[in-house]
User: Fold these one by one.
Assistant:
Number 1:
Amino acid sequence: MSIALYPGSFDPPTNGHLSLVERGLAVFDKIIVSVVANPAKSTALFSLDERLELLKGSLAHLPQDRLTLSTFSGLTIEYARQAGAAAILRGLRGSADFEYERQLAEINRHLAQDVQTVFLMADYKWFFISSSTVKEAASLGADVDGLVPKIVAEGLKKKFGVNK
Ligand code: ADP
């Protein structure tokens, strides 16, 4: 059985993340979507539990027997091994992602030759979407419906005090 670990901040999950999971399910038997508890990103808008809830709601339409949600801290490759994942799934938008992702993939490769990083692109519609741009737009009062799953749009409205 092919298992991929899809690690990320998911602060919050966007339609780009969702598209990647959907495409990943066409390639892998199972995907572990895992929120990284990373102290360097402790400025997160949503708590770990909130992000897990948002992911759960966002992925509810997909086959649940092929998805696992979790959180982890520490080395991604160690968690991948522990979870039985032979691949780390990551997404690419453009060249800015490429340089960063390449460094991550190379260091992970150095640390573990038995875990492969696999890159997929999200649907072209989500090419310009990142969690940070969505958060910034929402914080300024923009309507982000259509860029993020419904449950996330509602979560952002609550965070930024917009009652609709
Ligand atoms: P991280 O802090 O690990 O980069 P993110 O939640 O920002 O966590 O992203 C997780 C992964 O999903 C990364 O590989 C990122 O490039 C990818 N990703 C995020 N948004 C998109 C998108 N719109 N299209 C393709 N990949 C994306």
Number 2:
Amino acid sequence: MTAARGYAAPASDQPLVPFTFERRALRPDDVQIAIQYCGVCHSDLHTVRGEWGETAYPCLPGHEIVGRVTAVGPDVKRFAVDDIVGVGCMVDSCQTCPSCHDGLEQYCEEGFTGTYDGKDRITGEDTLGGYSDIIVVREQFVLNIRHAGADLAAVAPLLCAGITTWSPLRHWQVGPGHKVGVVGIGGLGHMAIKLAHALGAHVVAFTTSEAKIADARALGADEVVVSSDAEAMAARANSLDFILNTVAAPHDLDAFLTLLKRDGTMTMLGAPGSPHPSPSVQKLIFSRRRLAGSLIGGIAETQQMLDFCAEHGIVSDIEIIAIQDIENAYERMLRNDVKYRFVIDMGSLAQI
Ligand code: NAP
Ligand code: ZN
């Protein structure tokens, strides 16, 4: 066992506080990682505040992890001490069901093991995430980071925001000749703009925040629409092939379904704690539109996304915070005031 430190929430209505615990002794196929940076995902906030139902407390979130390997178990083949690696939203899965066989561990029929708020498949203990100094993860769920010379803090959000937007863009084969809408310009949305642009699509960003218009263009959007502008919305009716909806709060889905062409698809990524108003079935029927969902991405496609981003020089736009500022970061996230991902410098843990 190794002594570890982090920040955890004792209950849904209490702030995160310093927390000491132990990481497991290495199993033969385990990798131990000294965490350097961890991104702050809106899912962390939904989970620590109990918005998705039953959270196990203390809850120590964080699933956009970048760090340095400090030890490996005897059966580990792909990693050695001092390698720079990443860990995303999953740390294990059954490895035998059809989804795991297809490399889509996020859809594991037994349920994947979350990096936090999951249950270890061997001991049944609660998993504790990346707002900490050390983590121990099964080799199969550890990713190579090949961003030579890049700011590693800005690579961290690729492990969730990057893969969650990459996976549906690839699944629905988005590329040149496609008009793609991105709804909500936060952590996921800003990566969706960058990735859809890099894949050659024409990108239309939809925001509730007028202040983000210039940024959205700089991120790669060809057009930016403030979604409260009825005229601009009406002008884009029936114009989009595909929409990624990243909004973290309940909202009117019909306003965006109307923008899809015949046979277009809107894929939901945002997972608010309470339901959206029911979308109109007529909006789907009359243009054979589809409403779909997508969950993070498999380990193999996460590596493909990381390598694509390394090759194309793509990282996240970030604001570095000390772990002591996490509650303030959450409050700013709730005010849509994130440009465009908070990342915790884990060096700040040394100050507690
Ligand atoms: P985020 O950084 O807070 O961004 C969400 C954005 O949605 C905001 O910046 C804002 O953009 C827009 N928004 C927020 N409230 C809104 C409202 N009431 N009406 C309209 N737009 C609103 O969050 P995130 O980390 O990107 O996560 C987004 C959602 O995806 C969360 O629910 C998270 O749990 C979920 N998620 C899902 C997966 C998955 O696998 N499907 C993975 C990770 C996260 P504008 O200012 O541009 O309007
Ligand atoms: Zn996430």
